[in-house]
Design brief:
By secondary structure, this protein is mainly β. About 5% of the residues lie in helices and about 55% in strands.
Length: about 325
Amino acid sequence: MTTRTGLFLALSALLGSAAQAANVRTGTPQLLDADTSATCVVPANFSSGGTTQRALFMSTGIGIVLKREGQPTRLLFGRSTLKGGEQKATGVYMSTSFGLIYSPDGLQVRYLTGIRYSMVSPFGWVKDGDGLWNLSDQGVFTRTGLPIAPWYNVTGIASSTNYLYGANLLWVGTAGNFNYYQRGIYQSVVVNGISYPTYGLPDFQRVTALCGVTVGYYMVYNGSLLHHEDVSDPYALLYTDTGLPVDNYALQSLRYGPNDVDAVAYVGRTLWMNLGSSAPTSLVMPGTVRYVTIDASRRELLVCTSAGTFVVPYTLV
């Protein structure tokens, strides 16, 4: 793949980006919380008395805290860390180092189960050593209709099109086959009703992160951010987005709308947004970026950095 990648990089200036995502115009980062130990934030909006208030669940140096608008910060669980979460119709569900926590209204907070989920993405929740689960709007975890190949240590999930088996899921992690585990980028394919892990791309050891976007997926390959357009040929061109230097990127999958913010990448203090556009937007944050999430109802990114947690408003142009 090294030779092919060199060709992809050489062609990238001519090809540009085929994704049809809109460009993002960001506002000035505004300090939301001054705690410099925050490593994760999960926003949730709740209606009460005809008004909507936002509750922020944050992972800090003392544990998981709750920050409601107009109210002081309250410690919820000491010595626990937050991995991520999402809001559903029944409330907000969050993955922690001790298990799942749940809040129906931003006031009551309790542990739902001791089961831990290691990653939360728009494509599902990854249970430690188990694979992908779906969280319904009613708060029920199921595996109905999802691939159940033996996959572990997942660091990224994306939808993909396999030229033999059609639509499937791609992941970066390890897969098990007769007690043998090997790190790589895999596709989960279903043959005669049975799910199997297969290599999604060659030279897989160089892939460190993966996430889905509107028309394919992004991956960090040997420090480069590469985009794969979702076409029937699994070896179609991979190319970089203009303006992205080679570096040790972190990559996160976000969702707002079909052509809005799909994913963000960051390295050091620099945050890159809407990577599918012809000219991705970069923003230098006041501190080193640790975590990024999105408040869909307000069109705001929430960014945890070494200088505190900031809100970044954005508009689409």
